[in-house]
Specification:
alpha+beta; Methylamine Dehydrogenase, Chain H; 2 domains; 4-stranded antiparallel sheet; 5 helices; elongated
């Protein structure tokens, strides 16, 4: 049974006759014309002129497209053939790489802090221009500006559910903004006597803790606006606060009593940042320091990392005060530290304009990203699904290092007045 209709056969034969005539194959032209019995007069303006070549080249293009699709299909099949664990590893080991996906512009002063909303694709940025700006990090679009502070906004943080935003400023005030009510400023807390450098919601979201250059930490009750005064400075983990200061020390403090549990000293300059290590990073830190896997080394809040103006990063055992390792490589002040959610890496941002990725198990710098055109003030990792809203960071219980869900996105803020969004 013929695959071609009579019309298609005639079109093909006339196309061949036109091709033979155009290329001076006179004998072949006459033989085919006689054999087919077609009464055809060649015409360079007829639709058959060049039709055979067009059909042929389109077949070649189609064949190439088919080959490309077959190669793509083979690659996808290979990816699908990987075990779920291997596929997950492709994502869980992601670290930022240049170029950034978005450069967010709009602030008129340096960007001092960035914070991700825990569930929405929203990021808040605090700036020296006295404003907070809200952005959609997935599209890079600007959403709104929050005005209320009269001097630079030094820190910004969401509560665990993302219902409230807290900010602190050099104007000596802390403000709470209602995310679900058009971001209205619903509360303002006075109390500090100098620039407020840091603020966070305590686990449970009923209190906020702030650190100031007046050398105090204060804990505010969100509902009653009452305040408790603690002697000393920065970050929360369930049952402990880690603080850092220009006196070149970091301290581990019990927020209930204000008692200093441990003082960490080895930096040679002001400490800019201190962060608790998540439980997921404990195996790598133990390998780095040659520590045994004991109940004590699995407790929440067991380790912190500090970054300082002496250009170094230090990792500490908070229970013994022991310095476990010093990471050297930055050429200027270390401003921000973020543990990779997988627990395998530590990311650092510096006044040398780079992000560095450190492999925790070896202490090696495995990647350097030229990130901004000026000093980098801050860095944050995207939303992570908390196992328990009353616990944060290392407070997920002794030795429970279950892999939690997290989103691969990093934000950095700089003296260059931009926020950069880093996506896979």
């Amino acid at each position: 049974m013929s695959l071609l209709s009579e019309r298609q056969k005639e079109e093909l034969q006339k196309s061949i006759l036109e091709y033979l005539h155009a290329n001076n194959f006179t004998d072949a032209f006459n033989a085919l014309k006689k054999e087919t019995g077609i009464d055809y007069t060649p015409d360079p303006k007829a639709k058959y002129a060049g039709l055979l070549e067009k059909k042929w080249t389109s077949v070649i293009r189609l064949q190439k497209k088919i080959m490309d699709l077959e190669n793509r299909n083979a690659a996808l099949q290979e990816e699908l053939s990987l075990s779920p664990a291997k596929r997950a590893a492709l994502q869980t080991d992601w670290v930022p790489r240049a170029p950034a996906a978005y450069v967010l512009k709009g602030h008129r002063g340096q960007v001092l802090k960035v914070a991700f909303h825990p569930t929405f694709n929203i990021i808040a940025s605090a700036s020296e221009d006295a404003t907070v700006k809200i952005w959609d990090w997935e599209t890079g679009e600007f959403e709104r500006t929050l005005k209320g502070h009269t001097r630079g906004v030094n820190d910004v943080a969401f509560d665990s559910k993302g219902n409230l935003l807290v900010t602190c400023s050099s104007d000596l005030f802390i403000k709470i903004w209602d995310v679900q009510n058009e971001w209205k400023n619903t509360k303002t807390f006075p109390g500090h006597e100098h620039t407020i450098s840091s603020v966070r919601f305590m686990p449970g979201d009923q209190q906020i803790v702030s650190a100031s250059r007046d050398q105090t930490i204060r804990i505010f009750d969100v509902a009653s606006t009452s305040v408790n005064l603690l002697p000393c400075l920065h970050f929360v983990d369930g049952r402990l606060i880690a603080t850092c200061s220009n006196d070149q020390s970091a301290r581990i403090i019990d927020p209930l009593t204000g008692e200093t549990k441990m003082e960490l000293r080895d930096h040679q300059h002001t400490i800019e940042v201190v962060v608790f290590a998540p439980v997921s990073s404990y195996p790598a830190i133990r390998e780095l320091a040659g520590l045994p896997n004991t109940d004590r080394s699995n407790r929440s809040g067991a380790y912190v990392a500090t970054g300082a103006r002496d250009k170094t990063i230090k990792i500490w055992d908070t229970q013994t005060g022991q310095l476990l390792r010093t990471l050297q490589g930055h050429d200027n002040w270390v401003r921000s530290l973020v543990f990779h959610p997988s627990g395998k890496f530590l990311l650092s941002a510096s006044d040398d304009k780079t992000i560095r990725v450190w492999e925790l198990s070896t202490g090696r710098c495995v990647k350097t990203v030229e990130a901004h055109g000026h000093f980098i003030n801050c860095m944050a990792w995207g939303p992570q699904a908390p196992a328990d809203s009353t616990k944060t960071n290392g407070a997920s219980g002794p030795g429970k290092a279950e892999p939690e869900k997290f989103v691969n996105v990093v934000a950095t803020g700089s003296v260059d007045q931009t926020i950069k969004i880093w996506l896979p």
